[in-house]
Amino acid sequence: MDMSLDAVVAIDVAQAALKYLYLTSHAGGDGNRAEALNDRVGPFQDLEYGPSWPLIPRVIETWRGIESSAIKMRTEQHSDLFFLNHTSFVEMHLSYIIAALLPTASWAVPATFESRQSEPECKYDYFTQKVDHFGKNDSTFQQKYSLSTEFYKPGGPIFYMQGAEGSPLGCIDTTAAISWAEEVGGAAVVLEHRYFGDSLPFNATNPREQLAEYQYLTLDNVLEDVTFFLDDLKTKLEGATDSKVITNGCSYPAWLMTIYQQTRAAKVHATIAQSTSVEGLITEVDHTFKYGVNNLANNIYRAQNYEAWEKISNGYQALHDAVHAADYDKLKSDFGLCELPNEETALNIRIYPGFVHLLATQYNYNTTGLPVKDPLNTMINIALDEQDPIKLLNRTVWTWMGPTGTKCLNVTDPQQGAYAGSGTGLQFGSFNYLNCAFCPGVSGGDYLNTTMFRFNYDSYHYVVDGCKERYNITVPKGEDIRSKYNITREDLQKSKRILWTGGEFDPENAMGPRYQGVNSPIFDINADRDVSRYLHVDGMGHCEDNHAPKDTDKETVKAARKKTIEVIRSWLEEEQE
């Protein structure tokens, strides 16, 4: 057959082949099984034998050649747990098979996790930045940035977005900042965080092996990077000498920009801080919010579907019981562990489903770069569909981590393993170092056994001891950082021109600035337009409003975007008045 097939025929071939593989793989041993399973094939159910079926041997050959898929590996070991009722599995392998059939027709291949992760067309430049702003080292490094002046009018504001704790650096055109710039005639720029992506002093990427090179990853150096960069940018943009700077960040970068606003008021006019955890400096064993993130995740699942919440709870209880039964061979087999666990490391298995359940609530929207679409509903549907509690957690983990290339679960260093398999692009080494050095969220992700997670887990000593062991860092006290950088509750209640936003489906909101004295613009009874505000958005996930607007945004997110730009306008126009 001519291999220049059109997309429809190619997809028909792939689907027909997958149906064939599915049914033949499950037909043996039970006369009723193939018929029952056929009801669960979904889109393959109505396919008829047709002209595409002669290509099936070729597709099967392609299938057998897929060696890199973690889910394929899991299927071979546990065919009852994973096969084509697995949505992510089907989507990923359809793309592989169609690609094999149409090697020259890339337009016909649906987006895979890898292609969704790729950077958009974007122009990047580099800025010569100081390694140390306080005279301890005179070296420099190249710091990557993305700048748009498409809508800039001389004298207009500069929207500065702080780069996140991962790679690659996103293009400024893919962020909300570009829409703000368009509305008010501003420039928009994102600067990569030092020690992340391509912005690497001494080319340092591993703090465990390059500890001396990492001594310049300090909070003060990160903040001064912003000042040094913006001061230079203002000399290069026409009419920008007196341009107002509005900083922006989401999550950890929002925490950074809140501090920047509070400590460098002469350099910045306002801040839009999205999905931030300003209460995230948790270094006290008995801190009020130590269980906050996972308590809120628990509440989100319970509110969305109580039956699913009950079954997820049963899954964690079954895992808890299995860990204490100490059948380590079975645990290794059930969860696809990299090594045989022991009494200490078996407890770390819970981190993987816990992390996935958390990510599924945070990123409950269709964004690029993640391996699962509609993640919260996907996890709820897995819970509703799966009757075996251990298999429920197994499917939860591998639905998310299989498409990211994860081969097995590392229970010796579960934090690194979980982040590596998350698909978020977070660079664990550098982020773990700064968490120890100046942004300690030591106990913010602890578990209570009264939630669906069923484990009591206190990370305090695990994290604090780990920072000392890995980097010889004594974790600073949260209260000391709050006081030094003017982000105590009292400081924030008196702050000016900070808009914090947070979403209903973001468990990080448990540590957001939602307390008396920080007001919503809807119910604001303070006549001072400069008062800092918190805007809660129903239905919104983590950093969802940080992305550039699109027609498919939720209506609540669209409304939040409109409120945000009106707050920006009022702050800018007040200055003009």
How would you describe this structure in keywords?
single chain; 577 residues; alpha/beta; eight-stranded mixed beta sheet; 21 helices
Give me the CATH fold name of the largest domain: Rossmann fold
CATH superfamily of the largest domain: Alpha/Beta hydrolase fold, catalytic domain
Sheet/helix structural class = alpha/beta
Major sheet: 8 strands, mixed
Give me the side-by-side strand order of the main sheet: 1-2-4-3-5-6-7-8
Instruction: Calculate the mean pLDDT score and round it.
Output: 79
Strand content: 5-15%
Strands, count? 8
The topology string of helices and strands comes to HHHHHHEEEHEHEHEHHHHHHHHHHHEEH
Number of domains: 3
Number of helices: 21
What best-fitting shape do the alpha-carbon axes yield?
globular
The CATH class of the largest domain is identified as Alpha Beta
Q: What do you see in this structure?
A:
The chain folds into 3 domains: 7-110, no CATH class; 126-279 and 486-576, 3-Layer(aba) Sandwich (Rossmann fold), CATH 3.40.50; 292-478, Four Helix Bundle (Hemerythrin (Met), subunit A) (Up-down Bundle), CATH 1.20.120.980. The longest helix is centred in the last third of the chain and has 22 residues, at 555-576. Residues 1-13, 19-119 and 516-523 have low confidence and may be disordered. With 577 residues, it is α/β, with parallel strands linked by helices. The protein has helices at residues 7-26, 33-38, 56-64, 70-77, 87-101, 113-117, 176-184, 219-236, 252-263, 292-304, 306-325, 328-335, 351-362, 375-385, 389-401, 414-420, 428-437, 460-471, 478-484, 489-493, 555-576; strands at residues 125-130, 140-148, 158-162, 187-191, 245-250, 270-274, 498-503, 533-537. α7 (176-184) links the parallel β3 (158-162) and β4. The protein contains 21 helices and 8 strands. The chain has an 8-stranded mixed β-sheet with strand order 1-2-4-3-5-6-7-8, sandwiched between helices.
